[in-house]
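Sample intake sheet
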Amino acid sequence: MKILPQDIPFNRAPLTGGELRLLQEAIERRELSGDGHFCRQCEAWLSQQLNIRRAMLTHSCTGALEMAAILANLSPGDEVIMPSFTFVSTANAVALRGAVPVFVDIRSDTLNLDERLIESAITPRTKAIFVVHYAGVCAEMDAFRELADKHRLFLVEDAAQALLSTYRGKPAGTLSDAACFSFHVSKNVVSGEGGALVTNRADLAERAEIIREKGTNRARFMLGLVDKYTWIDIGSSYIPSELVAAFLRAQLDEAESITSDRRKTWQHYHDAFADIEARDIGVRRPIIPAHCSHNGHLYYLLMPDRKARDRLISTMRELGITLFFHYVPLHSSAAGQRYGRTDAALPLTDDVSDRLVRMPIWAGMTVETERVISTVYKLAGH
């Protein structure tokens, strides 16, 4: 009987070996509700690793983005510039405040928000720019910082995919007024669900603590700075449980090695697919600017057209290898048309969405990488 090869999933969450031990410790401490021992350890790790003033764990990156939207003081009718090629949470955070997501096209190289199109999209109602670091590759933050300062706009990094990536030697997440990270199971370092908001601004850090604690000054009360706590601002319950934080702490201990492993797999793909790109059949590999270092979060190819992309995904799945496309552009979605608007046509966003296909990538891939590469060549390399 012929033995069939094992299926290759798109993602496999890393396990460091320390998760159960730290979960047990969290249970024994009986600090389960959050903002305890492990939460503080994770925040200290992030602050030190990023050289950032304040890091706050949240129950998700979605929650962190909602906090950032509150910190930006968004009101109904305000406008926020962002890419359409992003996850819905980027826009939802804005729409929940009654503000309007304004979708702008992306660059053809990094697939990040095109900084050259921002100024023409700014109106008297523009309040903020939400920049996304797609695939762990930083957007052109010097230009965005200059535009934000010039027009007095609040600048947010959606760095959900970019932990341990850098821009001109500076860590992603430290290049804006506030930044948001994700520890969702699909990311490099995971806690199942989970996220963080970070900032270098003391005024934002103080208010973020209040927003994160349901709009109360409970954090100051716990530090003994006030004799009772009360409701003083809007907010919600954004703090993760200690069980989530304990799991994350074990992951952060190995964050560098996990990232290094993923970068090796990413580079393996990149080197192997150089020939298929050189054949001039309409297949393109990712482009990484020299001043950016990525974290190996995802590897993609741009196929000649949507038909070729969909055919590759379908056939690979029949062979036990799971590939995925990525975002359906928000500007073309029902909610995007209801709550947002476009400044102009978004041809690159539409084109990339039709052609992009993501390869399986996770820490610990070995022979699986070779099988993915060889199968792609058989199906798309002619």
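Comment: The chain has 15 helices and 13 strands. Residues 19-253 form a domain with the Aspartate Aminotransferase; domain 2 fold (CATH 3.40.640.10).
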